[in-house]
Amino acid sequence: MKLIVLGGGPAGMTAALQARELHAEVTLLxxxxxxxxSVNDGPAPVRxxxxxxxxxxxxGSWETFGLQGARPHIDLAAVLANARRVAQYAHEKKHMAxxxxxxxxxxxxxxxxxxxxxxxxxxxxxxxxx
Length: 130
Ligand SMILES: Cc1cc2nc3c(=O)[nH]c(=O)nc-3n(C[C@H](O)[C@H](O)[C@H](O)COP(=O)(O)OP(=O)(O)OC[C@H]3O[C@@H](n4cnc5c(N)ncnc54)[C@H](O)[C@@H]3O)c2cc1C
Known about the structure:
Layout: E1 2-6, H1 10-21, E2 25-29, H2 36-41, H3 43-59, H4 76-94, H5 96-102, E3 106-108, E4 115-118, E5 121-123
Helix pairs in contact: 3-4
């Protein structure tokens, strides 16, 4: 059996891996990069931003705890860059793309949003079809 999975987030990766376990020939098309919201846009970078917010907030109560010092200046560009760095770190640490490929799934990343041309044909940016 041949299967095409659209989207390499947790749902798509799970579907692709389970299909491989059932010996299907699987192609996983990911618009951007494997990992989905969980790794690339969601928890990892957002929690890093939240940590920065908590640190900035806590600086407002230093004096209550007998601590002295100027409140930190918030460099938003640096805060955002750090959130991206953490997301990248999480991505690299998990070796998701390598792992998926090692199971025999054909993973194709960075293809833009795939769309159906008809009931049996999927196309990605650049015109390639399956
Ligand atoms: C701030 C934040 C914090 C979160 N915290 C948690 C948490 O603590 N615990 C938890 O369990 N969940 C958490 N979540 C939710 C979790 O991230 C999602 O439930 C999970 O990512 C959903 O997985 P998914 O595979 O369905 O979708 P997604 O992760 O969104 O993956 C979809 C993938 O499909 C790709 N795609 C979309 N359309 C196409 C197309 N047409 N063609 C090709 N590719 C396409 C996208 O690029 C994306 O990579 C959080 C979410 C956010 C935003």
